[in-house]
Amino acid sequence: MGDAMTRPLLAVTLGDPSGIGPEVALKAVAEPEAQGLARYLLVGPEQIARAARDRFAPSLRLETVPSASQLRAETDVGLLSISAEPLEAFPTGQVSAASGRAAVVAVETAARLVLGGEARAIVTAPLHKEAMHLAGYRHPGHTEILGELCGKKATMLLSSPRLRVIHVSVHCSLREAIERVTPENVGAAIRMAQEAGSRLGYARPRIAVAGLNPHAGEGGMFGREDDEAIRPAVEEARAAGLEVSGPWPPDTVFLRASQGEFDVVVAMYHDQGHIPVKLFGLEGGVNVTLGLPLIRTSVDHGTAFDIAGRGVAQHESMLEAIRVAVRMVRSGAQPPPGSNPRYD
Q: What pLDDT, on the 0 to 100 scale, is given for residue 3?
């Protein structure tokens, strides 16, 4: 069991085959650091994976297997193909129904591998929403696909080496985001922040809650939401034993967290949290799905059709997603292989 613990098996999806997903996935798993961290089962069309290997990681040995259970213990990188369509069905840099279908099937397949105990975590390359819709899927992205598959509501954590952020709301208008700032929703986000910190290995996560209004309302001068919706949720969470504080002025709390004062920040809406994380650079950003009985991390960038196939895509975000997945596995956030996929 030693290798399974020191080098867990990760299911890595290739994302939309027409984008940069196959390139960044193959480049990342071929890195010596990645090889030392885990073993990998790539999930996607075999023709795409082998073309990407030949182009971007020619020295990588890639073993195709019909199922995860047939992957040999000594194999560093395996391949589970989920499509028999020819290479031409996946046009580089173009929206394609075949690519959208393959991307979603890869995610569903990888999730079932983890839920069945055959892999320890999922690391995903980017999807393309229009391609998914052409293929008949209406999910906005990975979070919703996995939430439906697991029968649970999922949320996301944005993580970079210096900053980790959870949102009260994400994909909605600013007007609706303000309406969603309620004690119940803020409290739920705080509990998710606690889960995120624990999964990332913090014994007692230090959680900071951002205010909604300038200066966190300045005692009601700039709005009542901070005192009437956010503060009660913080006080309730603190009374329950969580190390949480706020609401803090949103123009400084992310800087304080990036300097090490806090482990996780709860942001009130999409741009409030996304902007500071992305200011540190997309190359180190990772999207982590929370609220599900599995570990899933992902790159924090899109399919980049404009540079697909050119060999210039940076794979640091994929490598960081691997690092975070392994960290979460080692923290004990995932049941061991073969166990019932639930939390005890």
A: 54
The residues, ordered by sequence, that sit 6+ positions from 55 with a Cβ below 8 Å of its Cβ are 23, 311
Residue 282 is predicted with a pLDDT of: 62
Determine the 3-state secondary structure of 75 from DSSP: coil
The pLDDT value recorded for residue 39 is 97
The per-residue pLDDT for 230 is 98
Residue 218: helix, strand or coil by DSSP?
helix
Q: Residue 131 has which token pair? A: 């391609």
DSSP states of 80-92 as a string? EE-----GGGS-T
Whether the predicted pLDDT of 338 surpasses 70: no
- Quote the pLDDT of residue 304: 96
Helix segments in the chain, DSSP class H: 2-6, 21-29, 32-37, 46-56, 97-115, 129-134, 142-150, 174-179, 183-199, 225, 231-239, 250-258, 270-279, 316-330
d(CA 97, CA 82): 15
Contact 82, 44 (CB under 8 A): yes
Give CA–CA dist 118/101, Å, rounded: 23
Per-residue pLDDT for 341 more than 70? Answer: no
The Cα–Cα gap between 78 and 338 comes to 19
**Residue 173 burial (C-beta neighbours within 10 Å; 0-12, 13-18, 19+):** exposed
Amino acid, res. 56:
F
Residue 42, classified by CB atoms within 10 Å of its CB into exposed (0-12), middle (13-18) or buried (19+), is buried
Helix and strand element counts for the chain (H, E): 14, 12
Q: Which two tokens stand for residue 23?
A: 């390139």
- How many angstroms separate the CA atoms of 180 and 176, rounded? 6
pTM for the full predicted model: 0.85
